[in-house]
Each structure stands twice: as C-alpha cells, then as structure tokens.
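Sequence, structure tokens quoted for completeness.
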Amino acid sequence: MKLPTTLAIVTIVCSALVAGCGDLAAAGPASIPDAHTTAPEVFAPAVISASAHDSAPAFAPDGNSVYFGRSSAAQSTILFSSRVDGRWSEPRIAAFSGEWNDMEPAFAPDGSWLAFVSNRPMKPGGKSIEATYNGGPQKGGNIWRVDRRGNGWGEPVRLSDAVNTNTTTFAPSVTGDGSVWFMTTDTKTGKFRLFRSQYRDGAYALAQPLPFSDGTASDVDPAVAADESFVIFGSGRVPKRSIDLFIAFRTGDGWSDPQSMGGGVNSPGSDAEPRLSPDHRTLYFSSERVLPITFPRTQSQASADLARMQSWDNGNYNIWSLSLAPWLDARR
C-alpha cells in the first residue's frame, strides 16, 4: 500500500502449501536470502497491469481466473479476467462491484468465497463508510464476504464487528480454516497494524494483533499462507525506503522476526499489496517501479518507450511477480 493520501483507498486503498512448520522453526533469520538473484516480472502488461493503479490480484484455485483492484484517486473497482489459451482476457467489472468503492479481493483457499474491502453502507439504506486517518478524512472500508453461486456470485455480506472493529479495516487474507488476517489502525499510534480473527464454529473471535506488529511502524497488506506457515506484508519499518515487503515464518507457537525481502524485490518507491499464487510458490505484489531507460536513444526506441509509458510503465502501481522458491526452500 502507498501510505494514505487522497489515493489511500487505492492501495489500501494504496494466498500447494508450504509444509513442515517444525522444519521451519529450525532455520534462523540468516537463512532468508536477499532476492538480488531474481528479477520480478510485470504481470500481464497492458491488460491487467495497465495505465491506472492495479493491485491485489486474487487467483481462483485453478489459477485461470483472477480478481484485482483498478483505482485512481477518485475510485476503486474490482475487475476480473480469465486465462484462455495462455492469454488473459480484457478485464471486466466483477458482478458484485462497481456501485461502491471496492478493492483488495482475497479468495478463500478453496475458492468457495472471496473477501474484499468496500465503503458500501454497513446496513441497507445507510451512508457509505467514511473514516479519519493519516491526518484527515478518507474513504473508509470494512471487509465483506461474497460466496460463489455456480458460475456467479451471491450478495456481499459484511463480516461481523469482531473483524470490522472500526471504519479503517482493510487488506483481508483468508486462511485454510476461514480465519482472516487484515490491517487496521492502532488506537494509540494511529499507524496501521496487522490483526487476525480466528474463525471457529461459524463465528469470528475478536481480532487480535499479530505479535510482530506492535504499532510502532506501519504494517500493511498481509498475505498469509493457507496453513499460516508464513506471511508476507508491507511495512515502513527499518530498513525501509518507502513501503517495503517483509517476510516472517511461523516458529512453533510464535513467529520469526520479519525480514526485508531485499533489494531485488523492494524498489525505491512503494512495494506493497502482496498476494500468493494458489500453490504459494509465486509472489505477486504491486510496485511503482518503472523499467530503466538508457540515454541517448534512437527515435524508434523513444517511440517504444513512450508507447509503453502510455500503456502501463508510468509509475502507477503495476502488478509484478517472482518465485518464492529462494525463501521457502531455505526454510525447509
């Protein structure tokens, strides 16, 4: 997420499981590699990564459909695209989105429902959700659930107050047992902090803060593995340059210290909204990075650079991907 400006709701507003938690506990933080040996690639340029802010891709379990947010300073809408013969279709507005400011979709691991954030009224006929944070009024948000109904979707339902404790509840991630991780503001510092609400016997328990997210630095956008063996999230903690991506692993009953994912992943600008592929081996994230340009250049190269800029490579959020194998294999 880009720390909130008017565009907050863009990036907040601006998951095959990893086995062996016991083995993960044996490895120390030093085993987490810097990603300088890998290079992120832009995801579906000019189709899904396009000229607006594009973020938070949520993949169906078969990997052949994706829901994501497309945003500007004034609006955010959830779109979907299907993969046919290896190519992603032109995105369309999701059936449950468009009327309100909607963003940050996240599939339940089995694909039976999808969580997302919206400023739609909490009750029919009410007012849209507004909030004050980061020093001023903003579009607010709560987490909603929409269930699969055959090839379509049911009506969105707001999650309980045990999850939506205030009007700044963003960035859901759903675990294998239906529990929800998310971000909301800390009551003392006002910074965003990561929380988890346990789902059991058809109800959510009151959300609890994650032990490694204490509110002293902004922590945003958790993407947690279905078995909760690891989590990737954005943070303004040291050694940050803007919002950077960090990874933490479950160690027995606790968590390892979050580690920066390194200079190969984190750019000088904002890198946030991480998401996991259905097999949890690929990381998708949103970034303001642009491709480097070498000068002097030919007129034909200038034309190509200009066309790319007009299409997607313009400093807005685009979706990038890279393999998580170096981190996951090092922890086995």
